[in-house]
Structure formats: C-alpha cells, structure tokens
Design a protein that fits this description.
globular, 22 strands, 22% strand, Rossmann fold, 468 residues, alpha/beta
C-alpha cells in the first residue's frame, strides 16, 4: 500500500492524493493550485496517469479540491467520481463557474498580451471550457454518508460528515490485506463545531493512517464575541444613518450562513424590517440545493423547519438572479442589506454595489471573510482612502467593518481535539493543506502533546506503507 502526495503539501491549495492498494489506484481530490509559485502545476498532466486510476473520491467542491477534474477527464480518466449527493449537484455549479472564469481570464490575457506585444509562458487558452465540464458530469456518483461503498474486491470507502460546507466529507478507506484490515482516513477540510445549518464534523476512534488538513495549524481563531450580536450591531448602526450594508460574500456556505443569521435577527426583532438582497445567481442556486438536501442539516436547523421558520427564507429576503433586478437594487432610496459575490471583491456584481455605496458615509462595507493580499477587498479593509473600481478611482467614505468567526476551518485547538479523539496512536499521521509554517507548527504540537508519529510530506512524495 502506498500514498502519493500530489498537492496541498506544505501549502494550502491543490488538494490531491492517490491511494495505491492491491493493484488499485484511487485518487482523492484533484484540486486547482492558487499560490503564484505553483500555478504551472495546473497545466501539467496528472503525476499519476489518468487512465490508470480506478476511481476518484471527492471530499468537497471547493475549487482547490475539485477544480482540475475537467483536465483529468480530458487526460483520459474514465472512472467513477464518488462524492456525497449534495456535492454531485454543487460540483456542476462550481465547475461551470470555474470554466467561465477560465474563459474570461484567457480573453483578458490575450487582449493584454496583444497590447503589450508579449507572450506568456503558457498558451493563452483556458485551462478548460464548459464543454470539458459537460464530459465530467456523467462520471459523478452520489454516495450517502455512512454508507460503505466497495471499490474493487478489497477496498471500500465510507463518507463521514466534515462540517465544512454542504456535502463535505471525510473519506474513510478500509483496505483488506494479508496482514489484516487497514483504515486510512482523509480529513478533507475539517469544519468548526456548532456552526449553523450543517452538521458538526465527525470524530473517529480508530485509524491506521490519517491524512489531515492544517490550514490553521499554527493559531486559534480570535474570540470576537457572538456573530449574531456583531451582525445586528453593524446593521442597526447603518440603518440609523439611513445607509446600506454591503456584504461581499462567497456563494457556497458563507452566503447561506448570512441568510440564516439575518433571518433570525429579523424574526426576533433585533434589526428593523428592511429589504435584504442576495445578489448572486450562483449563491441563489446553491441556496436551492441547501433547501433540497435537508437530510444534511443539523438538529438546530431541523427545529426551525419544524417550527415553521424556514432557515433560508424570511420576510424581506430577495434572491436575485437577473441583471436588471441587480441594477435596480442601487436605485432604491431606503436602507437595505446587499449580499453579493465575489467575496474578495475581485470580480462579479459586488463591484457595482461598492461603486454605489463606497463614497456614502452613511453606508457600511461589512467583511465576513478572508481578504487575500492584492485584492480590492484587502485594499478597502486595509484603509486605502482611494480605490480603483471598473477603471475609475473612488474615495472611500463608507464605514468599513469586519466580523470574525465565519471561518469554515477548525483552528489549532479544534484540530488537536479532532486527532486526539483516536483511542490509540495511528501508525502515521500526514499533515497537509496548510502553509509550511502552519503544518510544521502543528506537527511540533502533536509531538509535544501526543508523541505520535507525524510527517509533513512534500509535493510528489510517495510513501510506502507496506513495511508498517
């Protein structure tokens, strides 16, 4: 039995692994790389030839976990792609959106290169287009949580809740060998406990090998108080000034959590009645999938459903798909809440709402997610007095606020509780999906607290587990 580490090694993105057992090669995730030094890897063929793979097991549909699947199919992969039923539906939305972004990026680069009279390292074509996504869809297979699935005669996989986004899973492989059965667990992205809507992450009592994420392996989340109270305070202050609350948001999970929290505030009278817009066709589609897959929701959400308080519906909520309806939002004269993508303000409809509100002292730009270096969102959050939107400079006069606590990843302490739930030491733990500093820091903490064998593999490392 071997483990191939093919992405998210001493870095966060590009999640990809291959489990080799009893003649089968099974890939876990095939994600896109986002870190600038690693972008070339998106263009390279899969290190394990695609036609040698028996199956692909997908933990969840964030692009850094699924974004290179269309290229894998293009390279000759023809096996089943196993994931949870919500992930089957979300994958189509996410991959179509990714193909659209690839196409637009290629068009922009072609224009820029022609203007500058230069040529880039790679051909100016998309990584893949929508027709490539179409070829992926027939291979998607929905597998319910906690239902063992045989892959060949000697390997099975069971999906357990990861608590990260709707449909996210921790695949547990059971491999039968002459020496007995071995359990291999891939954590996927481990969510926080006690989050709204979806169930908490699963904990395990037994494993032989664990491949574990460490995004926040070197720090805990700041304790910034109750999310609902912070949200209510920001909305109430802005409404009193007669302005709009503009919230850049991500289409999967973050948008639905905001709808959940704002709905509770509306029903309890904690904020005034006003129009609330979710202006993102992708987020609206994802919200519909949430409503469809009620079996994946947590007990608190079920209690709301049974009390006739739909958690993703409330008076005043408008789900906006059309362009004209989106434009009409900024013609309204009364205070409103506007949630729109993209979450880092680098593209999409959010830019139009920023243009309409960023110069208004009565409005608030409210950030609820991480803003990467170099993005428009980061510039606004860092206090730049003037920002450039759609080719024009705009003075920042709106109030800028941020709410911590919305992260979809477990922090250092929660990660330690997760791995520490095992009743006895696994043969080995492999730390991935974290910057090198975060992974190495967590490895040192594991050694200090548990004394278990732990490693932080490098890209394209192959670990032979036969001798263990």
């Amino acid at each position: 039995m071997k483990l191939h580490f093919l992405g998210a090694n001493r870095q966060v993105t590009g999640s990809c692994y291959c489990l080799e057992a009893n003649g089968l090669k099974i890939m876990v995730d095939r994600g896109m790389f986002h870190e600038r030094p690693c972008l070339d890897r998106n263009w390279e063929p899969c290190p394990v030839p695609a036609d040698q793979l028996a199956a692909l097991v997908l933990t969840h549909v964030h692009v850094d976990h699924c974004g290179l699947i269309p290229r894998l199919v293009k390279e000759g992969f023809k096996g089943p792609i196993y994931c949870t039923p919500p992930s089957v539906e979300l994958a189509e939305i996410v991959l179509r959106d990714s193909a659209h972004i690839q196409t637009e990026d290629a068009r922009f680069k072609l224009k820029r290169h022609a203007k500058e009279g230069r040529q880039g390292k790679h051909p100016v074509v998309p990584l893949y287009v929508e027709s490539d996504v179409e070829r992926v869809l027939p291979y998607l297979r929905g597998v319910p949580y906690n239902t063992p699935l045989a892959i060949g005669e000697s390997v099975s996989v069971t999906f357990h809740d990861a608590g990260h986004i709707l449909g996210s899973a921790m695949p547990e492989f059971r491999v039968r060998e002459r020496e007995g059965e071995r359990r291999v667990i891939f954590s996927g992205d481990i969510g926080q406990t006690k989050r709204p809507l979806i169930r908490d992450p699963s904990f395990f009592q037994q494993a032989d090998y664990v491949v574990m994420e460490t995004t926040y392996g070197d720090r805990d989340h700041p304790d910034s108080g109750d999310i609902a109270s912070q949200l209510a305070a920001a909305i109430n202050r802005t409404a009193a000034r007669g302005g709009n609350v503009v919230i850049p948001t991500f289409a999967i999970e973050r948008a639905q959590e905001l709808v959940y929290y704002i709905g509770r505030l509306v029903r309890t009278g904690s904020i005034p009645r006003m129009d609330v817009f979710l202006d993102s066709p992708m987020a609206v589609d994802v919200t519909d999938i949430f409503r469809k897959h009620r079996d994946c929701l947590d007990e608190e959400t079920w209690n709301l459903i049974n009390s006739h308080e739909p958690p993703l519906r409330f008076p005043g909520l408008h789900l906006v798909r059309g362009t004209q309806e989106s434009k009409a939002i900024n013609e309204m004269k009364t205070p409103s809440i506007i949630m729109s993508s993209a979450g880092m303000c680098n593209a999409g409809r959010i830019k139009h709402h920023l243009r309409a509100n960023i110069t208004r002292p009565e409005s608030t730009i409210l950030f609820v997610g991480y803003q990467a270096q170099g993005t428009l969102g980061r510039q606004i959050l860092d206090g730049h007095p003037i920002v450039r939107i759609h080719g024009r400079e705009w003075k920042v006069r709106a109030r800028i606020e941020q709410i911590d606590g919305f992260s979809g990843h477990a922090d250092r302490s929660a990660l330690m509780r997760w791995i520490g739930s095992l009743r006895k030491p696994p043969r080995r733990v492999f730390l991935t999906h974290g910057d090198e500093e975060a992974s190495e820091s967590f490895a040192a903490e594991m050694q200090a607290q548990l004394g278990w064998p732990v490693a932080t593999p490098r890209y394209r490392d192959v670990v032979d587990l036969t001798a263990d």
